[in-house]
């Protein structure tokens, strides 16, 4: 099963050097244990653009979809045999990045 761990941050800023080191160590553990799929950081909401092309003409609006202090600042896509394992990995990820995280199962993963 595949899961997404979303890192929830606020507008306070980037990870500290210690947090970055802990994140790198967690990434190495995920790889060594066979849970790694991909991970990445995401720029702040001020860099966002919302695109709605459901109509005849696309609507492009600068800024985030939701105007809120909290935002998704990064993610891990992981592979785990069950939800309990994924929850344990999400807990370790939260400790590593010193942020709240949200764990959700993926409905599918195209490769």
UniProtKB/TrEMBL annotation:
It comes from the Bacteria. It holds the Pfam family YCII. InterPro entries: Dimeric_a/b-barrel, YCII. Signal peptide: none annotated. Residues 1-94 form the YCII-related domain. Belongs to the YciI family. This is YCII-related domain-containing protein. It comes from Microcella alkalica.
């Amino acid at each position: 099963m595949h899961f997404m761990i979303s890192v929830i941050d606020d507008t306070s800023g980037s990870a500290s050097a210690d947090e970055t080191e802990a994140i790198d160590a967690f990434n190495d553990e995920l790889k060594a244990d066979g849970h790694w799929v991909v991970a990445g950081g995401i720029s702040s909401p001020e860099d966002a653009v919302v695109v709605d092309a459901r109509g005849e003409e696309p609507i492009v609006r600068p800024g985030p979809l939701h105007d809120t202090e909290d935002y998704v600042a990064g993610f891990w896509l992981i592979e785990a045999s069950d939800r309990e394992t994924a929850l344990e990995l999400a807990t370790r990820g939260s400790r590593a990045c010193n942020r709240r995280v949200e764990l959700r199962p993926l409905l599918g993963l195209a490769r």
